[in-house]
Amino acid sequence: MPQENTAEKITRKQLIDLLNEDLSREYQAIIAYVNYSQVLKGAQYMAIAAELEVHAGEELDHAIRIAKQIDYLGGMPSVTPKPVKTSDKAEDMLRFDLDNENETIRNYRRRVRQCEALGEYALAEELRSILVQEQEHQIDLATALGVDVPDVSEPDERA
Question: Domain with 96 in it: what CATH number?
Fold first, then answer.
């Protein structure tokens, strides 16, 4: 059975728009990690709260790197974050973060394929390096929740 070509050809403008969605998701992650790292309560969450502070800094770095690439492609980087969910329950906050990381990983994997289809190999490599950290965040959150790391290998059709 032939494998479906998941690297659909998109235009440079479409790539800019998709990267701006990714940038808005990075802003969302920064806000969520800053908030959650400060409001998680209880001895069992002290280490993960400290780790979420580290994640916030890494997400800021991702946002800067994505904004730089959007500018390189001739676009204007977004300034609007995606909505941030909050909760009084620590486990809910960690679940929100894990769900967001899963979505981010799916989107960046797809974006790598789209960049390569456009011949934007350096941008694809930049996204791969961001993916490494996003997957580390996913592992940290799954571990904190005591769950297996979700399998997000199937492309999400919404991206």
Answer: 1.20.1260.10
- Contact predicate 36/101, CB 8 Å: no
- Asked whether residue 5 is assigned to any structural domain, the reply reads no
What is the rounded CA–CA span in Å between residue 33 and residue 21? 18
pLDDT in tens, 4-24: 445 578 999 999 999 999 999
Q: Is the pTM of this model over 0.85?
A: yes
Check if the beta carbon of residue 77 is closer than 8 Å to that of residue 67: yes
In a domain, 101, yes or no: yes
Q: Are the C-beta atoms of residues 81 and 68 closer than 8 Å to each other?
A: no
Domains in the chain, number: 1
pLDDT digits (tens, 9 = 90+) for 73-104: 999 999 999 999 999 999 999 999 999 999 99
Domain range for 60 is 12-145
